[in-house]
Automatic annotation (TrEMBL), chain A:
One GO process term, biological-process aspect: L-leucine biosynthetic process
Xref: HAMAP family: LeuD_type1 (MF_01031)
Assembly, per entry: Heterodimer of LeuC and LeuD.
Protein name: 3-isopropylmalate dehydratase small subunit
EC number: 4.2.1.33
GO molecular function terms noted in the UniProt entry: 3-isopropylmalate dehydratase activity
InterPro entries membership: 3-IsopropMal_deHydase_ssu (IPR004431), Aconitase/3IPM_dehydase_swvl (IPR015928), AconitaseA/IPMdHydase_ssu_swvl (IPR000573), IPMI_Swivel (IPR033940), LeuD (IPR050075)
Residues annotated as domain Aconitase A/isopropylmalate dehydratase small subunit swivel: 1-116
Metabolic or biological pathway: Amino-acid biosynthesis; L-leucine biosynthesis; L-leucine from 3-methyl-2-oxobutanoate: step 2/4
CDD domains per UniProt: IPMI_Swivel
Similarity remark: Belongs to the LeuD family. LeuD type 1 subfamily.
Pfam families in UniProt: Aconitase_C
Keywords: Amino-acid biosynthesis, Branched-chain amino acid biosynthesis, Leucine biosynthesis, Lyase
TrEMBL record, chain B:
Biological or metabolic pathway of the protein: Amino-acid biosynthesis; L-leucine biosynthesis; L-leucine from 3-methyl-2-oxobutanoate: step 2/4
Species of the source: Jiangella ureilytica
Lyase among keywords: yes
GO BP terms, alphabetized: L-leucine biosynthetic process
Gene name, Swiss-Prot/TrEMBL: leuC
Binding annotation for [4Fe-4S] cluster: C347, C407, C410
Name recorded for this polypeptide: 3-isopropylmalate dehydratase large subunit
Cofactor: [4Fe-4S] cluster
Subunit and interaction comment: Heterodimer of LeuC and LeuD.
NCBIfam families cross-referenced by the UniProt entry: leuC, PRK05478.1, PRK12466.1
Length: 196, 469
């Protein structure tokens, strides 16, 4: 996994709350068996609307998505994270994320930074007043800057460490194989098995 | 201080705990389907890793499978590729799979309980957010992403941060015509689609205790629609009776040992929840959604709300957008909304009791000419059971289409979809924009409301119907 320490890129104001993963990528794009190439499905239903923010050329090359509250609700599809990453997004900022989406993002190196809704509103205004403005997301300092705006960003310590080190979860867990072996030895025999 | 049910199950599965790190939790049962697993198996292959516990893993085909002509090759090539990839992966890694045409095939969340694999006190995961369904047995069950699927395949564990706990107390007695679906839609409308984020919900109280296992599954199934990853109900005699005798239920001495453990799985009297919410079952009515998220619901007797009536600016904006998408006018009585399609099925309401309830409403009636009615059993076994009871005849005489098992019209991945602009009354779980097909408009309802809507052609409850003459 690529390390994430600091990133600057065009900020994209997505003034919508409750953006569920069906909107991030509709189910019809989930039929692929590959792990890349999902960018065409990103916000597919909305991209047909010429007023949609990513259809504005100034925002099209965006890499920091600034979204409304409850981003990533609904289906557990990790394709939502792949689609955002494949499009070129490095970070999503919101005042509240759905749990599964946030977990999936951390595993793929997509930063989900939590900001206050007041700061989100300020950044939205700044980006809408000057489309193409860059946003800097500093994971090391846990700060987001956009022009004059300096906003504290919440990311938990463990996720921050893993992202900054670019560490893979499975590799980390396999360091503790002995503990897993011990746990399995003590498991009650009444627990079900799928193979008989 | 005592512990909540969720905390007891959590603590019994901690493989490793270290300061500043997530707990490493053991996973008892890993369910797999074709949509969220191909990239996970691919990851194992690339890293040269085996599946650690194929004997705790079960795969089924559901999201992409057609519900007609299941003996023919799947027409959609990408769907077919995804199904074939799952079959190949299961063969290569030694995972049991129930394929289309197999008697145990069906929606993953219907199949697990039906086989008796879902049991109290287990940790259950699946790359599917409706895994919360299995919490109805007092299991800690939650949806995961594909990276986590790979993680569980490789290690049978997951690193997880503890959840907070929320009690949903449902006291009182449900009125006739009011169901588990109405309870959960009312809960989501009350706490919001983000209200459960970071929590495990425990449904408690008299009205919950009175529910059958299948009704409890309907409630836990939609916990995710309130933002919660898991919902739980403490196991009781209803639970034990449901499991007893199923193919994977413990037998003999193992049953006794299991039962002894299961009886310890309840929230202690002196335990404290982080949050408590109360719902009055006596006051509940049939509930339907009017908007584009499952929290935008109201009693069927209400009218489409005026967006300006919401206090919160973002709720106002969301309501305005929802009414535009749904093509609804504020003030329209919900009962006046005409639908094109009625869908009865899904992991929320595709079990035998759901089909029995819907069949009892439509028996001896004819559907409205303006609607098509799709009845899709949640599993091949449910379909067979329904046919033994003659429910298929009741539905076909009503004018409904009787289909094979699968996720069907719950989501737009298989041939069963709404056309742009079409409107449905659906017993499924999500009314998101385009969920049932691009441009489709969804009203979430209970099986009883779905059936009555099929009769009248507008959103209705059985109480609105004339007696069969």
């Amino acid at each position: 996994m690529e390390k994430f320490i600091r990133h600057s890129g065009v900020g994209v104001p997505l003034r919508r709350s409750n953006v569920d993963t069906d909107q991030i990528i509709p189910a019809v794009y989930l039929k692929r068996v590959t792990r890349t190439g999902f960018e065409d499905g990103l916000f597919a239903a909305w991209r047909g609307d010429e007023t949609f923010v990513l259809n504005n050329p100034a925002f099209a090359s965006g890499s920091v998505l600034v979204a409304g509250p409850d981003f990533g609700t609904g289906s557990s599809r990790e394709h939502a994270v792949w689609a955002l990453k494949d499009y070129g997004f490095k970070a999503v900022l919101s005042s509240r994320f759905a749990d599964i989406f946030r977990g999936n993002s951390g595993k793929q190196g997509l930063l989900t930074g939590q900001l206050s809704q007041d700061d989100i509103e300020l950044i939205w205004k700044a980006l809408e007043n000057a489309p193409g403005t860059e946003v800097t997301v500093d994971l090391d300092q846990r700060v987001v800057t956009c022009g004059e705006i300096v906003a504290p960003m919440q990311v938990d310590d463990y996720t921050r460490w893993r992202l900054m080190e670019g560490l893979d979860d499975i590799g980390l867990t396999l360091r503790h194989t002995d503990a897993i072996d011990d746990f399995e030895t003590a498991r009650p025999s009444h627990k079900p098995r799928t193979l008989v | 201080m005592g512990q909540t049910l969720a905390e007891k199950v959590w603590d019994a599965h901690v493989v490793r705990r270290a300061e500043g790190e997530p707990d490493l939790l053991y996973i008892d049962l890993h369910l797999v389907h074709e949509v969220t697993s191909p990239q996970a198996f691919d990851g194992l292959r690339l890293a040269g890793r085996p599946v650690r516990r194929p004997d705790l893993t079960l795969a089924t085909e559901d999201h992409n499978t057609p519900t007609l002509d299941i003996d023919k090759p799947i027409a959609d090539l990408t769907s077919r590729t995804q199904i074939e990839t799952l079959r190949r992966n299961c063969a290569e890694f030694g995972v049991r799979i129930h394929s289309l045409g197999d008697v145990e095939q069906g929606i993953v969340h219907v199949v697990g309980p039906q086989l008796g694999l879902t049991q109290p006190g287990l940790t259950v995961v699946c790359g599917d957010s409706h895994t919360s369904t299995h919490g109805a047995f007092g299991a800690l069950a939650f949806g995961i992403g594909t990276s986590e699927v790979e993680h569980v395949l490789a290690t049978q564990t997951l690193p997880l941060r503890p959840f907070k706990t929320m009690a949903i107390n449902v006291e009182g007695t449900l009125s006739p015509g009011v169901t588990a679906k109405d309870i959960i839609l009312a809960v989501i409308a009350k706490i919001g689609t983000g209200g459960g984020q970071g929590y495990v919900l425990e449904y408690r109280g008299e009205a919950i205790r009175a529910l059958s296992m299948e009704a409890r599954m309907t409630i836990c199934n939609m916990s995710i629609e309130a933002g919660a990853r898991a919902g739980m109900i403490a196991p009781d005699e209803t639970t034990f009776a449901y499991i007893d005798g199923r193919p994977h239920a413990p037998k003999g001495k193992e049953w006794d040992a299991a039962l002894e453990y299961w009886r310890t799985l309840y929230t202690d009297d002196d335990a404290e929840f982080d949050v408590e919410v109360s719902i009055d079952a006596d006051a509940l009515e049939p509930f339907v959604t009017w908007g584009t998220n499952p929290g935008q619901g109201l009693p069927l007797s209400a009218s489409v709300p005026d967006p300006e009536s919401f206090a919160d600016e973002s709720d106002k904006a969301a309501a305005r957008r929802a009414l535009e998408y749904m093509a609804l006018e504020a003030g329209t009585p919900l009962r006046d909304i005409a639908v094109d399609t009625v869908f009865i099925g899904s992991c929320t309401n595709g079990r035998i009791e759901d089909l029995r309830a819907a069949a009892a409403v439509v028996k001896g009636r004819k559907k409205a000419d303006t609607v098509r009615v799709l009845v899709v059993p949640g599993s091949a076994k449910v379909r067979l059971q329904a046919e033994q009871e003659g429910l298929d005849k009741v539905f076909t005489e009503f004018g409904a289409e009787w289909r094979h098992a699968g996720c069907s019209m719950c989501l737009g991945m298989n041939p069963d979809q709404l056309a742009p602009g079409e409107r449905s009354a659906s017993t499924s779980n999500r009314n998101f924009e385009g969920r049932q097909g691009k441009g489709g408009r969804t009203h979430l309802v209970s099986p009883l409301v779905a059936a009555a809507t099929g009769v009248r052609g507008t959103l209705s409850s059985p109480a609105d119907l004339e007696p069969v003459g």
